Amino acid sequence: MESRTYYYARVSSAGQNLDRQIDRFHELGADDRDIIIDKESGKDMNRTGYLALRNNLLREQDTLVITSLDRLSRNKQDIKSEIQYFKDKGIRLKVLDIPTTLIDVSEDQQWVMDMVQNILIEVLGSIAQNERETIHKRQAEGIASAKRRNVKFGRPVYQIPDNYTEIMEMVDRGILRPTEAMKKMNMSKSTYYKMRKQLR
């Protein structure tokens, strides 16, 4: 069976953009059908696109291309485990930000390349994991700070307008239509009916 090259791109959320990674793949001649994408966190390996690529597409002598190690994962141990998996399965991993992974060398020089790559993977894997831990720490600090300042999370809590009882009486008596009542209380339709239901 002829060997193939696959490309894997990942961002952490649906709102982020994959264009930069995909553009780099296109520069290498990648076909869109061979580019697998995920818009999921790199906290672990349980991602739809990646699992399909790893378990169903990649075969011995195939090549997997990623732009940087942190696209594979942001957990150093997961990175090392996956790299070992590819090595055991005879799958070549090319990391565009690690030039030594792109070089073809003779078998007697491979040990030197492996040594260099292991050092780079250790360093870059640690950086990727530290970045993720820093992001989580900042998020936790931000939430704690907001809570101290009584910032409310989730859906907004609506206050009952001072003129609510008076206006509802006018609605019940047919003096005001609901749409007019909403305007007078500066209230959306959904909030109006939700409050009406709860307070009856």
Descriptive overview:
The chain is α/β, with parallel strands linked by helices. It folds into 2 domains: 5-132, Rossmann fold (3-Layer(aba) Sandwich); 164-199. It contains 8 helices and 4 strands. A 4-stranded parallel β-sheet has the order 2-1-3-4, sandwiched between helices. Helix 1 (19-27) links the parallel strand 1 and strand 2. Helix 4 (76-88) runs antiparallel to helix 5 and helix 6 packs antiparallel against helix 7 (178-185). It starts with a strand and ends with a helix. The model has no long low-confidence stretch (mean pLDDT 80).
Summarize the entry for a quick read:
This protein is an alpha/beta fold and 200 residues long. Helix content is 52%, strand content 10%.
Topology:
Blueprint: E1 5-11, H1 19-27, E2 35-39, H2 48-57, E3 63-66, H3 69-72, H4 76-88, E4 92-95, H5 110-148, H6 164-172, H7 178-185, H8 189-199
Parallel strand pairs: 1-2, 1-3, 3-4
Helix pairs in contact: 4-5, 6-7
Helix/strand order: EHEHEHHEHHHH
For CATH, the homologous superfamily of the largest domain is named as Resolvase, N-terminal catalytic domain
Structurally, the number of domains stands at: 2
Number of helices: 8
